[in-house]
Amino acid sequence: NLSPFSHKVFRVIPQNEEQVEIISALASRMQVDFWQPDSVTQVKPNMKVDFQVEADKSFEVESLLAQNKMEYRVLIDNLRTAMEAQFDSKVRTTGHSYEKYNRWETIAAWTADIAAENPDLVSRSVIGETYEGRQMYLLKVGKSGTNKKAIFMDCGFHAREWISPAFCQWFVKEAVETYGKDSVMTNILDRLDFYILPVLNIDGYVYTWTNDRMWRKTRSRNAGSVCIGTDLNRNFDAGWCTIGASDNPCDCTYCGRAPESEKETKALADFIREHLSTIKAYFTIHSYSQLLLFPYSYTYKYPSNFKELNSIAGTAAKQLASLYNTEYTYGPGAETIYPAAGGSDDWAFDQGIKYSFTFELRDTGRYGFLLPESQIKATCEETVLAVKYLANYVLEHLY
């Protein structure tokens, strides 16, 4: 387990297969935590590869890279310092804040409060419980009406991606604050419901606050292994464990012992299956890389509505960039970044949800998973523009 004392984060861009091999060799010699891509098996030439190693190993890493004439840079010189620097919000409150990273207890209390304060717009339910027995809260946001279609949006699949739950909270705030003032938001909420899961991997999220900031997976035990946890975004029944996922419980892309083996995966999948007739779009929020992805990730083949998805992703990316010029790359997952099986977006799409998107929020690696709180507001504001555009599109193309 990597405890984050003065770890370093490197970026290397391997120029050829030979250099890819060197990165693989490095990973087999020491414990390397890959930030981007998710695992060493996904590394390919000309790809940005960000990884974290313990400080006392960094000399070995640097000399190996130098020996092989590989260019690299140190993205984060001291992880501990970067972790402390995250908490740079000017907001001085011990309670909930939309411009701070909130602990799970604070988020859980917020879900109750936001529903109580906005009874005509927000309701809260429980869709299951986590491995460690925490309740999984779901917010339904929208004006009550009959036969309404819905969009499902989740945050916090991967524990260390803190900006993700921050966005789900921000979006709910935006919905309740601008309903009745902003015509687009009002129209969307009058005619559609949003099902919002503020944190899926609650146990993992709690663990990133208490034990290991860089934890990614769930906290479930794996039979016959000392290694803990499954990658929830490899645990869905979509090309499960075929590519870009690991069957080794010690890997951070472990696919689990079977599809939906994790309680969290099953709760989410069950809810969507029960509401398939109403859910017309699925948005899942991750970080980092500034990407807007759509199916497929478990195969290089294109979805049947590829042209439509590609076109709306492009427009959504333009909408997002219109505020702070933040550039997003968009496209089908496998081709745009790397193949990865068992993801929720592919699964939702294969369930018949035509509009299925994965967001990878800020940044592109300067801070990686440690995006400072001072960037929460801007990140959320620009992302809301893309989500509103997509929601409005779905509304006008109901099927």
UniProtKB/TrEMBL annotation:
GO biological process: proteolysis
Designated name of the protein: Carboxypeptidase B
Organism from which the protein derives: Crypturellus undulatus
Gene Ontology CC annotation, any one: cytoplasmic vesicle
Molecular function terms from GO: metallocarboxypeptidase activity; zinc ion binding
Membership in a protein family: Belongs to the peptidase M14 family.
SUPFAM superfamilies: Protease propeptides/inhibitors (SSF54897), Zn-dependent exopeptidases (SSF53187)
Protein's UniProt keywords contain GTP-binding: no
Annotated PROSITE patterns: CARBOXYPEPT_ZN_1, CARBOXYPEPT_ZN_2, PEPTIDASE_M14
Keyword tags: Carboxypeptidase, Cytoplasmic vesicle, Disulfide bond, Hydrolase, Metal-binding, Metalloprotease, Protease, Secreted, Signal, Zinc, Zymogen
UniProt xrefs under SMART domains: Zn_pept
Keyword Membrane: no
Cofactor(s) the protein needs: Zn(2+)
UniProt domain Peptidase M14: residue ranges: 100-394
Catalysis: reaction(s): Preferential release of a C-terminal lysine or arginine amino acid
Record EC number: 3.4.17.2
Top-tier EC class: hydrolase
Location of the protein in the cell: Secreted; Zymogen granule lumen
One Pfam family per UniProt: Propep_M14
Active site: E360
